[in-house]
Amino acid sequence: MDTTIQQLKYMIAVAEKGSITEAAKDLFISQPSLSGAIKEVENEAKITIFNRCRTGVALTTEGMEFLGYARQVVQQMELLESRYIDKRPEKQRFCISTQHYTFAANAFVELVKQFGQERYEFILNETQTYQIIMDVRNRFSDLGVLYISKANENVLLKVFEEYGLNFYELFAVIPHVFLRKGHPLAEHKKIRLEDLKPYPRLNFVQGAYESSNFAEELFSNEIAEKNIKISDRAAIVNFMIGLDGYTISSGIFPNYLHGDSIISVPLKEDETMRIGYILNKDRKLSRLGEIYVEALKRYQDN
Question: From CA 64, how far away is CA 134, in angstroms rounded?
Fold first, then answer.
């Protein structure tokens, strides 16, 4: 292929922006020039990398795989330039994609504080479950943090196998209900699903993969008369406090973040969350990955 490193950088920028127009602005080139560069690469690779739509562009399945390799090429070239041309220390890059876990973000902060050198690019991508899988599959992320349970393991393990991924368990926890300290159910030793029926259920949006198999919350297939879907971790706390909403998760939630305003109560149901990370089968954890995983494990008993 005659595709250049610059063209690969263009493709990555378009994928991250989801818009040729916005990417062209960031790259300081004209939209027609960028569109032409994309078309050249697609023609040479004999695949369609982007689907055009009213709201911008979206990667095709083949495009996701292509961009995974493109990122590797660009990253390796940047390392080469740093070491042998610029004579500067190597630029560290470490990226994880994760479900919306506070402990995953806290562990990431610990990593950056301790191991961030003079030059680095650390990426924490809190996103939807299927996107985590695709990020790792396409090598955008070094690893992905999520959970499997009795309810979703058959589907997720099949997807992992199809995409060449391994799941490594970090720890297993019983599910907990998160709610505000003054919630009517706050004094319960344990909470049953039927106790929760009068209150708004808070779930994270999963986009096109809105099913219990990809949900971040256990028992999301249970019928709820009041259901609020959100995409932001901070917003879910506001709804807990303001609307007596609840969500079901791991029970790991450091008190110092919200004082005593949010509590967790064990859920009295037969289920377990096995929290872990996914990794490409042909990859091992990098040194930074090992350190990050060890930081995650320390939150098990919080």
Answer: 8
